[in-house]
Specification:
8 strands; two-stranded antiparallel sheet; 184 residues; alpha/beta
Length: 184
């Protein structure tokens, strides 16, 4: 099923079932806009990696007669990438509603690499959790002023949850071990 959302009625969403049908028929170029570490860990077979952090419209396949579909983990980043395409004159853009999560919930296969670095969200959880724990321990045993660290991290996580933009994830994605990952 395809639906059209506002943004000049040019941003369409497609459900996992329809996308699977299109992929099986070979009528779609699927672009994965997640970061390389996420792609290396798990991706939809046939998806082309073009991370949102380095999104370059000139790398989008344009010489095919196939539909262009974007996807990410949940649909937030693919919507942001779609906005960039629309802003650069692409007439109509489609993205997978619910992203890779919806794809997996529909029971469709993914290519998994168990030797890939841990996911960016797990890295965020480890760093944020460590900072909260450190701030709490230092606040309890050294000075109550260290509780500001825990509060700052909590506020950042709340902001990330509300807006869908995680600064810590963007910073972690720039680390060498997350950037120098082969594309497949």
């Amino acid at each position: 099923m395809i639906t059209t959302k506002r943004v000049g009625d040019r941003l369409q969403t497609v459900d996992a079932q329809t996308l699977k049908h299109w992929l099986d028929a070979g009528t779609v170029d699927l672009i994965d806009v997640r970061e390389p570490a996420e792609y290396a860990g798990e991706h939809i077979p046939g998806a082309i990696l073009l991370p949102l952090s380095k999104f370059d419209i000139s790398q989008i396949p344009t010489n095919t007669h196939k539909k262009l579909v974007l996807h990410c983990q949940s649909g937030n980043r693919s919507a942001q990438a779609a906005q960039k395409l629309l802003a650069n004159g692409v007439e109509q853009v489609t993205h997978l509603e619910g992203g890779l999560t919806a794809w997996k919930q529909a029971g469709y296969p993914t290519e998994v690499n168990k030797n890939a670095p841990i996911s960016l969200m797990r890295q965020v959880q480890i760093v944020a959790g460590s900072l909260v724990l450190l701030g709490t321990l230092l606040g309890a045993f050294v000075s109550p002023w260290f509780l500001i660290l825990s509060g700052f991290v909590g506020a950042g996580l709340t902001f990330a949850g509300i807006t869908g933009n995680c600064t810590l994830a963007m910073l972690l994605s720039k680390l060498p071990y997350n950037r120098n990952i082969p594309s497949s």
